[in-house]
Each structure stands twice: as structure tokens, then as C-alpha cells.
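Sample 3 of the quickstart, ligand zinc ion:
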Amino acid sequence: VELLFLGTSSGTPTASRNVSGLALIDTQSRAWFLIDCGEGTQHRLLKTRLSTHHLAAIFITHVHGDHCYGLPGLLASAGMNGRTAPLTLVAPRGISDWLAATLQFTQLHLPFAINYVAAEGLTNFACGAFEVDAVALSHRVPSFAYAFTEIATATVLDTEKLLAQGIAKGPLWGQIKRGYDGVYKGTLVRAADFLLPPGPARKIVVGGDNDTPNLLAQACQQCQVLVHEATYTRSVAEKIGKHLGHSYAAQVAEFAEAAGVAHLVLTHFSPRYQNNPQLRPSIQDIYAEAAAFFSGHLVLAEDFMQYRLTQKGDFIRVIAG
Ligand SMILES: [Zn+2]
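Result:
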């Protein structure tokens, strides 16, 4: 499973960060899911290897424009590029009416069906290799997190044991991996003896805009990766006031620490935070504030940054592509 960040700025884009968009890629099947689709997301996709042909579903966290204004354009292009397979769109109430009106008033006739699924109350929704649950968050409008839990985890071939018993690499390995017994140099080889049990199901929680990280306490049980907004640092959040419904770095970090999250990815940064650490305020301030409260693996998202969550639960940066 891989995460590819397409937009990591809050509210407005900057020269280096677009508004919200995140691809969750099932590297086995090549199917991928898009979580939020801010304006310009389709331009971001053009710089990756992802195509809307393999896009299995779109999840929108809430109705604010920086999370959904890219939808009509992305859907129109998918149609013009020949997509005919139905597309699942999981979104809170309001998105389907807005989109229907846009399609109607702009005379956009998509050559594929959109299957709307309400985010409200979504539990155990089967979506490719994952089961998805929506968690209601706290923001100015209804906002949701999506928890992706892997359904079936593949069994792993015990190659060390095979080699130790003198069974050389060959077609038999594939046969055993698929669960079939075989014969090697006249001796029966039982698949069950060379298959390691599947690892724990991988689980990734992706939050929408939210001022109360604690609402994710249950969803974060057994999750390896939490992607959450940290729009501000504490001092800026206190100056602005609570009414915007966002979190600050320390708040999210403290929650993730208490929840035992292994890998925390912060994103959705206010454009005031500069990439240049010499300038104030800088994105470095967000990192420093979170790191003071979180002892796990802390990552600050950047556009086009790509990470892989391995079967073993390691979360490693990969070259984008
Ligand atoms: Zn936002």
C-alpha cells in the first residue's frame, strides 16, 4: 500500500503546495483511491504515473472547496480519456447535489456512471482490497475521516526455509505460494510447511479537517498510519481562535502519542508556513512543535511525496512514480 500526496496546503494553493488531494494506491492490483480532490488535482496527477483508468473510488472528506473543487474537471477529463467503468464516489451530503447541478448547467455528460455512497454512517464498506469506515469529525461543516483496513493479507513464502531444505528457486515456489503441495526430487513438499501466516492487516486512517483529534481514538486502534491535518502551530491557532475548526501540531501529536500510532503524517498546512526554515513562521515550526509531543515516526507531507506501508508495518519513502 502506498500513499502519494497530491496537495498539502490548506485553503489556498501555494507555489509548492496544492490544495487537498491524496492517492492511496494498492500496489498489488494497481487500483487506487483518491481522498479529496481540491482544484488542480488533475494537474497534479499528470505529473505522476496514476491514471483515472485505474481510479477505483473517490472519497471526499467535506464540502469545502479546497477539498472538492477539482471534482468536475477530473471527472470530465476521465470521460474524455475514455473511461466507461462506473466510479464510486463516497462523500458527505451535498456533494452529489452540487455535482449533479454542475453537470447539468455545464452540459457535461459523463460516459460512466457515478455510484454515490453516503459518508454518513459508512461502516465496513468493501472497496477493492480494503474495508472502509467513515468517522465523523468536528469542523465548521460535517467532516469525515476514512479508515482503510486491508481485508485479506497475502501469505508469505518462507524462502529461507525452502533454501535451507535445498529446494531451489523455481516454478514450485509459485505453486507453494498459491497453496498447492508439490513434489521436489521425488519428495512431497507440503505448501503449509512453507507458508508463513499473513501479517496483521494494514490500516491507514486519513482525516478530514478536524479540531478534535480525539474523535479518532477508536479508529486509530491497530492503525499503523494516521494522516491528519495540522493547519497551525499552537500560538497561531490561539491567536486566530477556535472558530475555524482546525487542529494545531501539538494537539495532533499529543493525540497520536496517546493512541500509540506508529507513523504520523501531518498535512494541510496554512500557507503562512514557509518552506524556507530561515523565514518565520516556517514549516519547521510545525515539525518542531509536533516532535516535542510525539515519539514515533513523524512525517510532514509535501506534494508528490510517496510512502509505502510494507506488510511488516514499516513506512518508507519511495521515489515518486
Ligand atoms: Zn481544508
